[in-house]
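Thread: Newbie trying to understand structure tokens

Hi all, I'm a second-year student working on a class project, and my supervisor (Dr. K.) asked me to get a predicted structure for one chain before our next meeting. I've only ever worked with sequences, so writing a 3D structure as a token string is new to me. If someone could post the tokens and maybe explain what I'm looking at, I'd be very grateful. Here's the chain:
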Amino acid sequence: MRVLGVTLGTVAGLLAMSMAHAESSLVPETLTVEKTIKPGANVFILDQNWKGPSRVNVLSADDLSHKGILSVGLISQFKLTKDRKTAYTASAYAKRIMYGPTEAVLQEFDVDTLSVKREIPVSSKMAQIAPYSSLLQLTADERYALVQNATPASSVTVVDLIRGKAISEIPTPGCWGIYPAPKGNKFSSLCGDGAATTYTFEADGRFTPGKRSEKIFDVDADPLFIHAERVGKDLLFTSYNGNLYRVSDAGEAPKLKDKFSFTKGIEGNWAPGGFEVTAYNPAHNVLFVAMHPDAEDGSHKNEAEEIWAVDLKAKKVLYRSTVEKVISITVTEGEQPVLFGMNEEGLVQRFEIDPDAKFAAKLTDKVEEIGEFTLLGSTSE
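---
Reply by user tm_fold:
Sure, no problem. This is what the structure looks like when written as tokens:
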């Protein structure tokens, strides 16, 4: 027993000496936080959540590496300024999730630091719905933010970004979506009877009754996606059947300027499918469209199997590129376009577009599991 006691005492002593030596040689790790994200173009992927906080994933446009996250509230919408330096989100913060009061806020973020600059309360009527580009917008001069509401009656909250407060709620009965005019304090909205209405407002929040257009589209025979592209001074809408509607919103009321089909004569019954179904590259006047085959009534949200490049001047399809289950696309604006596609399972794909090969899309990178409900992407070049 005495030998065992001496042995155990020796072992304990050696362990104590070893631990003391380890403690003396251990260098504590210093944790740091980068002041800014890595330089270069970004891709912003909104991972909208209906169970808790949403987030905006910021990826590198070069290789899809992860740069950081903007953390926001429930069922968020997202908008980026023209200079890509400021991001806005509109989301809800529910006190008890299932019942009770809900606070809706417009949050302003500095992109370089991914930090919140300020919060502006908006109407709790804010539409809590899948993310679309037309549900949170900025006026042409970016002085005002425009937030879509639904109670289910539709209206738009106008937020003065200089004064930092909401100044008006404009009723938009029977109309949905926000499409800011090329200039001035006005926006248009698509209506359930196939028309569109333009609304104007003043700096003090006063607004005039909307100016309604003549019928632009047939809501039963050829309904439109609420996502639109700004092509020059006009708005470009895509229909479920593959027709493009070019609408001028420069006047008092919207006006249809042109309409043509880019699917006519193509076998396979192809049609646009997804949510953000189009992306426009102004450098080449080419529209990219997410397409699915065997279209039927109700398939307009089907994932795309191809991306079509459409020449808007010649009004024809230039190239059809195979893709993997895409429902949302965005493209850069320059001479060498890069297109990004997303699906609901969190797969993000990066494609380089070759203008010399009729705008064929070549897959260069992809990243999986970026979120559960990734429907919206924006890029900065």
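A couple of things are worth pointing out once you decode it. The longest helix spans residues 2-25. The radius of gyration is 26 Å. Feel free to ask follow-ups in this thread.
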